[in-house]
Amino acid sequence: MDIKEYLSTQKNIIDEALDYYLPKAHEYPQIIHEAMRYAVFPGGKRIRAILVLAAGEAVDGNGKEEGLLQAACAIELIHAYSLIHDDLPAIDDDDFRRGKPSCHKKFNEAIAILAGDALLTYAFYLLSKIKDVPEKVIKTCEEISYAIGTFGMIGGQVVDIESEGSKNLDVPTLEYIHTHKTGALICTSVKVGCILGGGDKNQLHSLSQYGKHIGLTFQIVDDLLDIEEGGKNGKKRKSDLLKKKLTYPAVYGVESSKKQVELLIEEALADIAHFNHKADHLRGIAQFIGNRRY
Ligand code: GRG
């Protein structure tokens, strides 16, 4: 299996589905639908959505493809919302995202805030449309809403903002920020794939561990890319160094951070070692996350 080929094929599937599910740009009031689509297309790696599909495959979710795809798109819309809000002047104040003006620069702040809110709202509308037993759909909504709320992504973002500029290199705070701000949505993507794919309790536990390990890895690698590429990762985005952010390389140094990435990927692979070949895509994604250059 060539992981790059797999990721590219899956990204196309996700892009087509997002285009199908999202309100069309010409629908009234046009500006909000244009802004939503502007933030979603052309996308990034779509890694969270791909994780939903790969986790569904790992638990042999045959016949569950449509629900998995809807959940994958919902998670990608939530990711897009978080990026719009993250770029706002009140948060990270970034003028560029994915190589083009960020949403508030292209439109204006009010529309960007509302486009983020609209993507978040639409994500749950999409989840409510999944045709599966109600318990699974409710469990999926519970899982996602918890992961992106104050005990997950928003909690991580709040602590990140609060710790900005702090001179204390506090390791527990750093871990909290990484596992919540970035890790929670990544981990929940894997768990949702398992739930909607029909995985059992033991599989959910193993995949949850895998999700935690790759989620933390994802942000450490992001920190490393930010340093190595001098902030180029976001294409003209302000680097973490400039923002005096608490990052892994700032606390542990570059070499030790790279070592931790290697160890975390080994742990992620060990978490799913007892799964059969249907988890090979999850294995490939873990390695991709550890080695990614973008
Ligand atoms: C309600 C104000 C408000 C905020 C919501 C903004 C926010 C909470 C959380 C921020 C979460 C965030 C932006 C985390 C950064 C995670 C990260 C590394 C993003 C980049 O992800 P990639 O590399 O991006 O997957 P692509 O472009 O590939 O999709």
Structure overview:
This protein is mainly alpha-helical and about 290 residues long. About 70% of the residues lie in helices and about 0% in strands. It is built from 13 helices and two strands. Strands 1-2 form a two-stranded antiparallel sheet. Strand 1 and strand 2 form a beta hairpin. Helix 3 runs antiparallel to helix 4. The protein is globular. About 0% of the residues have low confidence. Bound molecules: geranylgeranyl diphosphate (GRG). The site of geranylgeranyl diphosphate (GRG) has 17 residues, from helix 4, helix 8, helix 9 and helix 10.
Topology overview:
Layout: H1 3-21, H2 30-40, H3 47-58, H4 65-87, E1 96-97, E2 100-101, H5 103-106, H6 109-128, H7 134-148, H8 153-163, H9 171-197, H10 201-228, H11 248-252, H12 254-271, H13 280-291
Antiparallel strand pairs: 1-2
The structure holds geranylgeranyl diphosphate (GRG).
Geranylgeranyl diphosphate binds next to helix 4, helix 8, helix 9 and helix 10.
